[in-house]
Amino acid sequence: xxxxxxxxxxxxxxxxxxxxxxxxxxxxxxxxxxxxxxxxxxxxxxxxxxxxxxxxxxxxxxxxxxxxxxxxxxxxxxxxxxxxxxxxxxxxxxxxxxxxxxxxxxxxxxxxxxxxxxxxxxxxxxxxxxxxxxxxxxxxxxxxxxxxxxxxxxxxxxxxxxxxxxxxxxxxxxxxxxxxxxxxxxxxxxxxxxxxxxxxxxxxxxxxxxxxxxxxxxxxxxxxxxxxxxxxxxxxxxxxxxxxxxxxxxxxxxxxxxxx
Length: 260
Description:
Layout: H1 24-37, E1 53-59, E2 62-65, E3 70-76, E4 79-82, H2 111-132, H3 140-148, H4 167-179, H5 182-190, H6 199-213, H7 217-228, H8 238-256
Parallel strand pairs: 1-3, 2-4
């Protein structure tokens, strides 16, 4: 039999009844309603700030720029600034180089003197290089030039600032250096009347002299026959050819008003 009294029945406590949980569709509709009411502002699309487009080629370059900027730099020790930059400080570890322009009346301000000196320096260095090869120091002559006129070797460029009255002395000093090289001594000797050139070299000298004299073929042939007894080069001896070239040289000196 079943006892109708529940005194012997143990009743366990019941859990709380679950509250009504809105579905995902209800949440979406509720969010739309709040946006329309203005209680929730929609998120704005935030654009990322563009970085400047920069290109650098070279060493020790500095490049500064704001966004939306394109910069390109090429070379060495350059500084490039673009866009909105409020402050920039650049420190350099090297000393500034200061060059003084030659004043009027100085050697460096006279194009003729400067050209002659630079050509002599080049000629001397070329002769020395032919003898010494890759061991030759091209800057050595500049140091010698500076010391010869009372300057430090590193200050040889002060020669350009000297009065142009000193130019003949500078040129003479350089000519002495040139004539003392092996090639210089050979070149100086070949200008002498007693020096015997090869026949091929005599042809080159003759052509140069005739070009300066401006003689046409008839005058040249007549003069050659007068001096050598032959109208054609192929019919004269080496000694006669040497005498003919010497004659042309003397004619050039007369034309230029020069003496041997």
